[in-house]
Design a protein that fits this description.
EamA_dom; EmrE-like; mainly alpha; transmembrane; transmembrane helix; membrane
Length: 283
């Protein structure tokens, strides 16, 4: 039994390693894509391409009321807020740091639901939010910052909901349904803010984002949450903003300011303390 659980944990962290790389790369790629299309059009491409790829793989979808709620929270609203934050934030890596206040919200939700949250974890929450505010203050609070934090909160609610309600189903079929549902929900928004430059580069970028960030990324994420639980998976996700900074520099040449680095580092430190601090204190 202990060996089986250890194998599951290792497998879960392997899933998270894939998430760190795939979603870290999605930030600069999405930022590039937004030069050719609006956030809503990019979201539609991402949902449609990712959903169809998973549908071909699974040859079916897992459909239901709970699956619909999960899809709206974890896919549609999260990606919508993400794309809007990228549009209104000068550095995609900064948007990623604010999105990844998600583990802090996961802890807050756990406390609200009556789960035990120690003092060290709560200290980590306060440090994390202080760091996030410092990062925002380094470029003044913007609409993009607000969208990013909203995405982090929505994702936290969705992660908790997934673990409690739909984690036992077929993940490929579930993700196929959620992506295609999100594409349908995005149509009115896409028609409201239509911008699409038909160029090979733009279309190729949108397809790559759909295949990687949507199909592969979400499949790996939900696999990790199912293996590790929402708290552990969210804790490991603190590596994604760091990955986004590195990959944004490599792809876009974007160099963060000193205050962005300091504030983001404090935010990630707070997340780390909130997830691992009590365990280290007992060691």
């Amino acid at each position: 039994m202990v060996l089986a659980k250890h194998v599951e944990m290792n497998r879960g962290y392997l899933y998270m390693l894939g998430v760190v790389v795939v979603w870290g790369l999605s930030y600069p790629l999405s930022k590039l894509s937004l030069t050719y299309m609006s956030p809503f059009v990019l979201a539609f491409f991402r949902f449609l391409v990712g959903g169809l790829a998973l549908l071909l793989l699974s040859r079916g979808m897992q459909v239901g009321v709970k699956e619909t709620i999960n899809g709206v929270l974890n896919v549609f609203l999260l990606v919508l807020f993400l794309n809007l934050s990228l549009m209104f934030t000068h550095n995609p890596a900064l948007a990623s740091v604010l999105i990844y206040t998600q583990p802090l919200f996961v802890l807050t939700i756990a406390l609200f639901l009556g789960e035990s949250v120690g003092r060290i974890r709560m200290l980590g929450v306060l440090i994390g939010f202080a760091g996030a505010l410092l990062s925002v203050g380094s470029t003044s609070f913007s609409l993009g910052s607000l969208f990013a934090v909203a995405g982090g909160f929505t994702w936290a609610v969705g992660t908790t909901y997934f673990r409690r309600n739909v984690s036992r189903g077929d993940l490929v079929k579930l993700n196929s349904f959620m992506a295609l549902l999100s594409a349908l929900l995005d149509v009115p928004l896409m028609s409201y803010d239509w911008k699409l430059e038909l160029s090979p580069e733009g279309i190729a970028l949108a397809v790559v984002v759909g295949l990687t960030a949507q199909a592969v990324g979400f499949l790996l994420w939900f696999s990790a949450v199912r293996e590790l639980g929402p708290v552990n998976a969210s804790a490991t996700s603190i590596l994604i903003p760091a990955s986004a900074y590195v990959l944004s520099f490599l792809v876009l040449g974007t160099v963060p300011t000193l205050l962005e680095v300091i504030g983001s580092s404090v935010a990630l430190l707070g997340v780390f303390i909130s997830q691992f601090g009590e365990r280290l204190a007992r060691a």
